[in-house]
């Protein structure tokens, strides 16, 4: 959980940008932690000659050096990989993670720096495909027509496949942590867990080898959210997607929504040092898809209003067996009342006049 300050540092490092395809907002906050160990990357073009965008978040632990290095270097390792120029982007991400990890090892070797970091990145190609590479428990989602779609899966020691690799690599899991220490099972850095010379990088107790998920952008996809576990420990994927969409619909900028989201997740006090007490970083990427920024906002606003509009039809459900329903029908006198019935399968609302029974007691009144 880490040590905490007596008061949180809520000053935010915030930025924004955009072009004809994407707009983004990004922000990070130290919060209750003694040090700030997060980093992030926001590139509308991964290289000046490229039309490929790159956004990433890195959540450091054991120091900030690994995260800072990753924020400055991971995209370069991916771009320089031979698979990138061939359009083999998933392979370029996987090889790029491992190459960056090797470079980081050389950099930290002299100082015996124990730091490590999660890494989750999204690479967006000109044909509208998102490639998300992930190692660790930071996370990326797509906000799609009000729903949250996963772009990554957390790597935890409790996961069956992760647990097997840890054991096969000579490690163990205790209290849900690798060797009783590390709460995640994949990361850049953390070289104390990568000392098996007879095993390839992807088979080490802790590996930098990422999962890569690809997703073809659809008309329903509105934005991407990338964040560290300081956010996801507090809110679910769907809660984050709803929060962001509501902010856009209300007219807030993406960078302001990032700041508001972190404030929402910040714990009111730090006695337990747990949820809401971590460093926080959020990157939100708007997928314009041929719209201007104003048109994109208006599109989300109109859809959000339609979905949020309350129905003026109040439905009272009566559940009865066919036998009871038949018995009631047989005793209906000739007086009328409106009963609203709903066919849930077809979502069609109909109104029909049926006869309402009047009790003897009501007649006497």
From TrEMBL:
<feature type="domain" description="PPM-type phosphatase">
    <location>
        <begin position="23"/>
        <end position="287"/>
    </location>
</feature>
<dbReference type="InterPro" id="IPR036457">
    <property type="entry name" value="PPM-type-like_dom_sf"/>
</dbReference>
<comment type="similarity">
    <text>Belongs to the PP2C family.</text>
</comment>
<protein>
    <recommendedName>
        <fullName>protein-serine/threonine phosphatase</fullName>
        <ecNumber>3.1.3.16</ecNumber>
    </recommendedName>
</protein>
<keyword id="KW-0479">Metal-binding</keyword>
<keyword id="KW-0464">Manganese</keyword>
<dbReference type="GO" id="GO:0004722">
    <property type="term" value="F:protein serine/threonine phosphatase activity"/>
</dbReference>
<dbReference type="GO" id="GO:0046872">
    <property type="term" value="F:metal ion binding"/>
</dbReference>
<dbReference type="InterPro" id="IPR000222">
    <property type="entry name" value="PP2C_BS"/>
</dbReference>
<dbReference type="Pfam" id="PF00481">
    <property type="entry name" value="PP2C"/>
</dbReference>
<keyword id="KW-0378">Hydrolase</keyword>
<keyword id="KW-0904">Protein phosphatase</keyword>
<dbReference type="InterPro" id="IPR015655">
    <property type="entry name" value="PP2C"/>
</dbReference>
<dbReference type="InterPro" id="IPR001932">
    <property type="entry name" value="PPM-type_phosphatase-like_dom"/>
</dbReference>
């Amino acid at each position: 959980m880490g040590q905490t300050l007596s008061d949180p540092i809520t000053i935010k490092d915030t930025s924004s940008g955009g072009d004809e395809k994407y707009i983004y907002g990004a922000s990070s906050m130290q919060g209750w932690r003694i040090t700030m160990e997060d980093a992030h990357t926001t590139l509308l073009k991964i290289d000046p000659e490229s039309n490929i965008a790159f956004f990433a978040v890195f959540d450091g632990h054991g120091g900030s050096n690994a995260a800072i290095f990753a924020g400055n270097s991971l995209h370069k390792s991916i771009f320089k990989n031979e698979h990138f120029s061939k359009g083999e982007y998933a392979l370029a991400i996987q090889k790029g993670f491992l190459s960056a990890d090797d470079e980081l090892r050389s950099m930290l070797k002299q100082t015996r720096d124990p730091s490590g970091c999660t890494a989750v990145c999204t690479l967006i190609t000109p044909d509208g495909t998102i490639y998300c590479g992930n190692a660790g428990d930071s996370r990326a989602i797509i906000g799609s027509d009000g729903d949250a779609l996963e772009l990554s899966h957390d790597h935890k020691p409790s996961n069956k496949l992760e647990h097997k690799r840890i054991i096969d690599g000579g490690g163990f899991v205790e209290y849900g942590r690798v060797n009783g220490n590390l709460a995640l099972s994949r990361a850049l850095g953390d070289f104390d867990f990568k000392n098996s010379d007879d095993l390839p990088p992807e088979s080490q107790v802790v590996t930098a080898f990422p999962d890569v998920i690809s997703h073809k952008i659809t008309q329903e996809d509105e934005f991407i959210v990338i964040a560290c576990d300081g956010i996801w420990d507090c809110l679910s994927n769907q809660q984050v997607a709803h929060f962001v969409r509501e902010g856009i619909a209300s007219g807030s900028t993406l960078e302001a929504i990032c700041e508001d989201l972190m404030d929402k997740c910040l714990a009111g006090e730090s006695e337990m040092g747990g949820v809401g007490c971590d460093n926080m970083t959020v990157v939100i990427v708007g997928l314009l898809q041929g719209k201007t920024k104003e048109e994109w906002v208006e599109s989300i606003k109109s859809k959000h209003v339609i979905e949020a509009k309350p129905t003026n039809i109040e439905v009272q459900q009566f559940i009865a067996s066919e036998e009871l329903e038949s018995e009631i029908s047989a005793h209906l006198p000739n007086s009328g009342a409106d009963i609203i019935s709903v066919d849930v399968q077809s979502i069609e609302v109909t109104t029909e006049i049926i006869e309402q029974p009047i009790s003897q007691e009501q007649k006497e009144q």
